[in-house]
């Protein structure tokens, strides 16, 4: 990236051609994925990584992958330390905790990409309904929903990007073109999604233990998953009217990945070719959307370790429904790599910088 030596980010002057970034909450799955990407990013210096549990320990001692890549020592979280150390902060803190710190960082001149749900919903009352009281409701109006494919120009100007949830990412990307062109009935949308166990985070949870998950698939939080209002908010924006969906998530016995299958009643005479043309038109300038040809459908393995959302679809003439399928890596396009994509837009890098990541095979 080219800029004058005195140009900064978030109103702060910087003298290095790189920007300095902090990863707050660095030892969860998302924080580690962020570090993996950022340490190889051509325009970034990771100046701070925090962990309350492992403060004082070298990152490479905890995670041998980072040996030879960084000498970072994990620090405890202090807002003044974050402000003094970087130009942009990634918050990988839990819901509620993020909102308690982000205002101080923005007040100190930083830009922020928040990976919690604290700034995704535009309504404080809706947030309260699903998450509880909000610690910084005045920031909601200024936060930008961080899905680049639908909010790119807003993200470029943002001080605070609210990184989308993992389930919402694939769902919104697949359904948006059909709601925009009014080719599906917004009241008919059903979303059936399946996620690997890393979606539950790195803390010890009974339902995520190997013996609980292995050789089993189960639905959870049926009708009450917290990503529901986030999906409805963004689909309503695309449709230009309120959208209410039926959303059922499932846990499947694999490490990472989300496969979402969406069903909606078609409002127009259509064919599978029309469905794929609509997806291709929506994605034609998008570096991280991959639309599959007729008869080929997404696989989570195709996107492991990448920032790609893979989408396929058909029109089912027997039921009159459009069926869409989307696959993402929940830790990448569903979290860390999408956060870097947002950073790239906010800080003037090429949008794809640091994100030319091939899928892992096998």
- Provide a count of the helices: 11
pLDDT averaged over residues: 93
Shape, principal axes of CA atoms? globular
Tell me the structural class: alpha/beta
Largest sheet: 7 strands, mixed
Radius of gyration, in angstroms, nearest whole number = 20 Å
Instruction: Report how far apart the termini are.
Output: 34 Å
Fraction of residues in helix: 25-40%
As a percent range, the share of strand residues is: 15-25%
Order of secondary-structure elements: EHEHHEHEHEHEHEHEHEEHEEEH
Please state how the strands of the largest beta sheet are arranged side by side.
8-9-7-10-13-12-11
Pick out its properties.
362 residues; 13 strands; seven-stranded mixed beta sheet; 11 helices; alpha/beta; disordered N terminus; six-stranded parallel beta sheet; globular
3D structure, described in words:
This protein has helices at residues 29-38, 59-62, 79-85, 99-107, 124-130, 148-156, 166-180, 210-213, 228-239, 272-283, 336-347, and strands spanning 19-24, 44-50, 88-91, 111-114, 144-145, 160-162, 190-195, 218-219, 246-251, 258-265, 289-291, 309-316, 321-328. The chain has 362 residues and is of the alpha/beta class. The radius of gyration is 20 Å and the shape is globular. The model is unreliable at 1-16 (pLDDT under 50).
Helix and strand topology:
Blueprint: E1 19-24, H1 29-38, E2 44-50, H2 59-62, H3 79-85, E3 88-91, H4 99-107, E4 111-114, H5 124-130, E5 144-145, H6 148-156, E6 160-162, H7 166-180, E7 190-195, H8 210-213, E8 218-219, H9 228-239, E9 246-251, E10 258-265, H10 272-283, E11 289-291, E12 309-316, E13 321-328, H11 336-347
Parallel strand pairs: 1-2, 1-3, 3-4, 4-6, 5-6, 7-9, 11-12
Antiparallel strand pairs: 7-10, 8-9, 10-13, 12-13
Helix pairs in contact: 1-11, 3-4, 6-11, 7-9
